[in-house]
Amino acid sequence: MKQRLLPVFILLSAIASPAAALEWPVQDVKPLHLFGQRTGKVIQRGIVTANQGPVRAAADGTLLLILEENSNMSGFPGTLGNAVCLVHDDNLSTVYGNLSTVDRVSDRTVFETGSILSDGNRSGWGPSLSCTFLVLDLLKKKVLNPLMLLPVLKDTRGPVIKNVVAVSSANDQGIALGTTKQLKQGKWRIYADITDTIDGFEPEFSAFRVGVLVNGTETATLPIEILEEKNGTLYMQTPVFSDRKLYEDSARMYLGEVTLTRGRADISVIARDLAGNERSVLFGVQIE
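Predicted structure:
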């Protein structure tokens, strides 16, 4: 049955909608890494889920590309290993990596939702018996967070916010919020250790959206929605959040820069996951 995907701009404005545009490519979903999460020195561009069964097409699509392990000149496997790329309506493409083989798709061009593409394995750089799943916007040349388009996983717990630090943009002095009642006026970069969990799974993931508020006004927003590359630099949503800037602190994520003026300031950090669970912390400081 032909399935039309919603335009991307509608999908981005209907986060966590019950009507998902894609289906999970594996039956037993066990996420290991999520989009935007730091794994070592790499930002995840998709979802890595443990899988010992079939990997299926997430939507009706046409075969765009097949990547095979050891197919390059050096014989060294690419990060995706054996992979299949399908193209769908509205210029969306789905990529299925770390597959055991591509034999099932080598003589086909059209696939329906749920068509078996292969099995999860370890042909790429992913964990053993896993599948790497990416969603691309071919027209805008961006990588989308697959969770925006997939059925929402059950999640009743909000994100955890720890170790919030303000770093002066003038002299790079870092001060842990919660340990001080005073800050100097000026521009401050905000960092925090923010993690999220999903019911039934042990790994910790990144939150979906983080905001920094000063006296109730949102002054910095970090949406974990889109990755884009420009001039050799990978960034999240806007150039403000480049991959280097986002995780320049090995223990915390960069949340943005705020300007503090003289007087009382209530600095809040709010983190939200895709299921709508929200957590916030508040720090009251005097700006001198």
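Summary: The two ends are 65 Å apart (CA to CA).
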